[in-house]
Design a protein that fits this description.
heterodimer, A: 183 residues, mainly alpha, Rna Polymerase Sigma Factor, Chain: A, Arc Repressor Mutant, subunit A, 2 domains, 0% strand, B: 196 residues, alpha+beta, five-stranded antiparallel beta sheet, 6 helices, rod-shaped
């Protein structure tokens, strides 16, 4: 079923919307969540919570790309779930967060206000300036929290090439954050 | 805000990137690298193509010189059909060449050295003797000798050049020089099949 038709079902408050969502996107959403949480139980709960949130948000939302819309919801839920329940970092969100923290000085301390919108804009501008291959690698690592080996297979690049690309992109991102006064 | 908290904020900011980048990463498919054996096959095919494109004209030229193709570069099936038909026809044969009144097609099978004769009209004579055959060089003897006798009593062979020495059936040693054109072969074939 087309995304547009599924969204129409949400707007019609038809429970068929949830069934069709699960058929079309259930496996993908579970996979995204699992890559972040590394837990079957947590992933199942995050996917169910995603359906609940989607039901409550449509209407009023009418996304053009339903898959991406749901992905954003499940990612946010999965990251929160991971942070809440896992003190010890063992992959997924933890590893990706650790890598991003490398561009932050070790003695960093900030008492002021950091605008979330400004951070988002920096990321979007940064990604827009990358070539497609590098951008895909960055998003797969820090949005989807995939491991290096999986990214290597999915992009056709060697493991060392992926690691090198990520290292350089983190350095570039750090410079951009400093330039914007956000670091 | 400490380092860890800021890193968490960065992860949250990543979660808010434009939909188009998320969609791009989800749907990205790496370019499949062509396997080595496919590259080798392509290289070999290209090499063969180049060789054939250079070698084919040379081969064609040699086939023409060898008499295996006519000037139309079509296969020799019409001529072969003609020779086969002449060799296997049921037309009455003569140990000695008979008296011929008017135009005629005469041929002699080397298997029995006997002559066979079919009367011709002037149009048929013209068709058989018209067109220029390609010089055959060392032409293959097809086991049959062919003559066209004109209404003037002149013997001419479609397989020999038109010269005075080649117009007397008994005055020369028959050795094919020319390839019979397809039109002439077709005409002979038709005439013999009708078995007039």
């Amino acid at each position: 079923m087309e995304d547009r038709q599924i969204v129409d079902l949400y707007w019609q408050r038809s429970e068929e919307a949830l069934r069709q969502t699960d058929v079309k996107y259930g496996r993908m959403l579970f996979s995204v969540s699992y890559d972040l949480t590394h837990s079957n139980q947590d992933s199942e709960e995050c996917v169910n919570d995603t359906y609940y949130k989607a039901w409550n948000s449509m209407p009023t939302d009418r996304p053009d790309m339903l898959g991406v819309y749901l992905t954003k919801i499940v990612r946010a839920l999965s990251v929160d779930r991971y942070r809440r329940e896992h003190a010890e970092k063992r992959g997924g969100v933890g590893v990706a967060t650790d890598e991003l923290s490398e561009l932050i000085p070790s003695d960093f301390s900030f008492d002021g206000y950091i605008d979330n919108e400004a951070l988002k804009d920096v990321f979007n501008k940064f990604l827009g300036g990358l070539d497609r291959q590098k951008r895909v690698i960055f998003v797969k690592r820090y949005y989807f929290c995939l491991d290096i080996e999986t990214i290597s297979k999915q992009t056709g690049e060697s493991v060392s090439a992926v690691k090198t690309a990520l290292f350089r992109m983190r350095a570039q991102l750090g410079q951009e954050l400093k330039r914007q006064g956000l670091l | 805000m400490n380092r860890k908290e800021y890193a968490d904020r960065l992860m949250d900011a990543v979660g808010k990137i434009d939909d188009v980048y998320i969609y791009e990463a989800q749907t990205y498919r790496a370019k499949r690298k062509t396997p080595g054996y496919v590259k080798a096959a392509i290289g070999l095919s290209a090499t063969l193509l180049i060789i054939i494109s250079f070698a084919f004209p040379v081969l064609l030229s040699r086939l023409r010189k060898g008499g295996m193709m006519n000037d139309d570069t079509r296969p020799v099936s019409v001529r072969n059909q003609m020779y086969a038909t002449l060799l296997n026809s049921g037309v009455s044969s003569y140990k000695e060449l008979p008296e011929i009144d008017g135009a005629a097609l005469v041929w002699q099978n080397e298997s029995d050295m006997e002559y066979r004769v079919i009367p011709l009209n002037d149009d048929e004579t013209d068709v058989i003797m018209s067109g220029k055959g390609e010089p055959a060089g060392d032409a293959t003897d097809n086991g049959v000798k062919i003559w066209v006798v004109t209404s003037d009593g002149l013997y001419m062979t479609p397989e020999l050049k038109k010269s005075d020495g080649n117009t007397d059936i008994k005055a020369f040693d028959y050795d094919p020089e020319l390839i019979i054109p397809d039109a002439a072969a077709k005409a002979i074939l038709k005439i013999v099949k009708e078995e007039r």
